[in-house]
Amino acid sequence: MMKLPESMEGKTVLIAGSAGFVPSHMAELYLKKGAKVHGLDNFITGSKSNIELLSKYENFTFTECNIYEGLPDFKDVKFDYILSLASPASPIDFKIIPLEIMRVNSEGTMKLLELAKDHGARFLEASTSEVYGDPEIHPQVESYVGHVNPIGPRSCYDEAKRYAEAITMTYKTKYNVDTRIIRIFNTYGPRMRPDDGRVIPNFVNQVLKGDDITIYGDGSQTRSFCYVSDLVNAIDHVLMLGDHMPYNIGNPDEYTIKDCAALILDSLGGKSELSFSELPKDDPKRRRPDISRVMKLGYLPKVTFAEGLVATSEYFKSLM
Ligand code: UDP
User: Is there an atom of ligand 1 within 6 Å of 205 CB?
Assistant: First the structure.
């Protein structure tokens, strides 16, 4: 089996969205491997503290910009890798900034692809399990084409990511850009926004504060949660060793949302009660990745849900 390069010395990486949760971990991985990393972000959902953290590495540089309006003039640098990781991804963002989400994934992705073409760089598009919509097959394999509502409350994200995949494939077939597509399943860990609205930050913070745990619907819907260090390791495998066809990225351990609440209560030792409210429209009922394709590249998730939850709650405690 091919092996991941241990060092990235001499390589230059552009990370769009570097102030965000997953991209900031990705940037740190490559900085630690010796790469030069240039970050881009408009701080619409990213956090300045992530850029401060990355700025401690001397090989990190940053430009604040809205990538769909235009990229900086990179005439003195040649990128080896361009990572398209700039998109708000939480369902609460879908209501508040839908046009920004659509533009970053369409116009923004295209600008990054043009840059990859000009630089001869390898390009990675961070797509999502949301391209499968409310899936009719389970677990989801990459060959499944999905079940997405094009005019529903999640469509600004789902359809924009489907477009991002389509344009990435088009740059591969038309211009032979060396492209990668990953479909990220639910990810959690330190540096998530505590108010990001997603299930893990909500439940962990509710338990830490002794508030009720807010379950939407009856809690029988499922998700499969991946700890962020496993996720960035999977991305590294695809970028270095993969091909241009999509890869599901995540951890296939599947939990109902109700079990997830019980596990969080159990591992953090809280006394919160469960409260039930309406399930949002188009909320997928089941989600679990088939990760056999990325496993063939040598990836295996390592962090258990219980371990990841403890690390995540330590992070949220440090913000209180
Ligand atoms: N959810 C919940 N309570 C919350 C937040 C989310 O029950 O406080 C549910 C949500 O309805 C969904 C699942 O948890 O079924 C995962 O939601 P999240 O927003 O984390 O991500 P999604 O997978 O829907 O994009």
Answer: no
What distance in Å separates the CA atoms of residue 142 and residue 172, rounded to the nearest whole number? Answer: 18
Which class would CATH give 12-187+228-251+284-301? Answer: alpha beta
Q: DSSP string spanning 47-100?
A: -HHHHHHHTTSTTEEEEE--TTT-----TT---SEEEE-----SHHHHHHSHHH
Q: 64, 88, 74: which is closest to 121 by C-alpha?
A: 74
**Residue 251: φ, ψ to 5°:** -130, 125
Domain boundaries, the chain: 12-187+228-251+284-301
pTM of the model: 0.97
Whole-number Å distance, alpha carbon 54 to ligand 1 midpoint, is 29
For the annotated catalytic residues, the residue numbers are: 157
Sequence-ordered list of residues with C-beta below 8 angstroms from that of 52, at least 6 positions apart, any chain: none
165 Cα to the center of ligand 1, angstroms: 24
Largest CA distance in the chain: 57
CB 153 within 8 A of CB 92: no
The predicted-structure confidence for 12-36, as pLDDT tens digits, reads as follows 999 999 999 999 999 999 999 999 9
Residue located nearest, by CA, to atom 6 of ligand 1: 199
